[in-house]
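Quick one:
INPUT:
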């Protein structure tokens, strides 16, 4: 790394935390298998790429002789935070994205009936009918006398 003018200690201090986050994230993704695992893999990879981008840029400059131009350096100053923001947006998208619906209704392709609305072929007891949901057990045959 001395070739690009960056001490190895600086490289380790810059890339160490993203590498640890990638390792811990990989272990969690493999063990837990979340619904949007691909988005999280992409977020972890983009975050590591964002951390490595300045060093890749310095290698490109040293290899091609582009160093010393302020316009090129200014573009890099704007690109790296944008890539980091993209990594955060991918992680946020993986967290808040709705999970695919699974279950009996999802397997048939049908929609679940709204609460209280009967599906085809089923009947619903009224709450006021004898033995309905609104009465106590055993009170269906009692008569009430009014004064």
């Amino acid at each position: 790394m001395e070739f690009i003018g960056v001490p190895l200690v600086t490289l380790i201090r810059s890339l160490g935390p993203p590498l640890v986050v990638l390792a811990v994230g990989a272990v969690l993704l493999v063990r837990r298998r979340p619904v949007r695992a691909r988005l999280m893999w992409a977020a972890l990879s983009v975050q590591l790429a964002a951390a490595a981008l300045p060093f890749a840029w310095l290698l490109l400059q040293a290899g091609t002789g582009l160093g010393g131009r302020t316009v090129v350096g200014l573009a890099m100053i704007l690109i790296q935070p944008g890539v980091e923001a993209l990594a955060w947006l991918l992680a946020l998208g993986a967290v808040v994205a709705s999970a695919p619906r699974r279950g009996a209704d999802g397997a048939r392709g049908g929609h679940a009936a709204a609460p209280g609305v009967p599906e085809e072929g089923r009947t619903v007891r009224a709450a006021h009918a004898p033995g309905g949901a609104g009465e106590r057990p055993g009170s269906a045959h009692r008569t009430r006398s009014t004064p």
